[in-house]
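4.2 Preliminary Data

To establish feasibility before requesting continued support, the project team ran the inverse folding procedure on a target of 222 residues. The structure was first converted into the token representation described in Section 3, and no sequence information of any kind was made available to the design step. The complete token record follows.
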């Protein structure tokens, strides 16, 4: 086994790739939160409703969410290439990777949101209803507040999952550390570059997990 040659590493290119990964992660996490949180709330409310229309909505949404969660991301990103091109004008690079990242992660996050909301004490919800609180007030002042630690944990899991998704997007030129690791480690056999890219992704995941765990502990009632 040959010794690793870290002189192969272009630190400027590595820095640019790290920045691209952070851009993809930040944008996709934001859109995932904006889409996935309301979707998860709607799933929760529809599942508890006795109205026929809401039951139908739940069945349809649940079916769509389950389908999108079942498709492996590497297949999903390829299948969405025409849609991504029509939406943002490209299917590669940072911009072309964000739509499939969001479509892949939002249903996953929505289901975690639904699960977190189910953990809220029904007695608290019923008490708010008895006091005449509207649905909007119950969502803002009861559900989201009571489920905040679980929601933060769900967001942390989703963001960490997005890191692995950004790496997989490198297979089709998505940019970031994933593309760098594949181009140099797989196609050029420059193992040192791949190892550095992988280590940076591991560090990123650890930092995100630590930050998420700290927020969960802070907002968890003792």
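Position-by-position output of the design step:
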């Amino acid at each position: 086994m040959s010794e690793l040659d870290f002189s192969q590493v272009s630190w400027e290119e590595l820095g640019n790739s790290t920045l691209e990964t952070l851009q993809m992660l930040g944008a996709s996490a934001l859109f995932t939160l904006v889409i996935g949180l309301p979707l998860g709330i709607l799933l929760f409310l529809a599942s508890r409703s006795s109205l026929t229309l809401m039951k139908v909505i739940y069945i349809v949404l649940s079916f769509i969410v389950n389908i999108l969660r079942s498709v492996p991301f590497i297949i999903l990103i390829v299948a969405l290439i025409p849609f991504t091109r029509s939406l943002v004008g490209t299917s590669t690079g940072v911009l072309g990777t964000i739509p499939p990242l969001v479509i892949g992660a939002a249903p996953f996050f929505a289901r975690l949101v639904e699960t977190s909301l189910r953990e809220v004490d029904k007695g608290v919800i019923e008490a708010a209803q008895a006091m005449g609180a509207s649905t909007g007030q119950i969502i803002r002042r009861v559900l989201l507040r009571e489920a905040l630690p679980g929601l933060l944990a769900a967001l942390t899991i989703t963001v960490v999952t997005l890191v692995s998704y950004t790496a997989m997007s490198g297979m089709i030129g998505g940019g970031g550390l994933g593309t760098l690791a594949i181009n140099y480690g797989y196609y050029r056999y420059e193992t040192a570059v791949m190892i550095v890219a992988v280590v940076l992704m591991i560090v990123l995941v650890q930092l995100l997990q630590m930050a998420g765990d700290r927020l969960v502990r802070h907002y968890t009632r003792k």
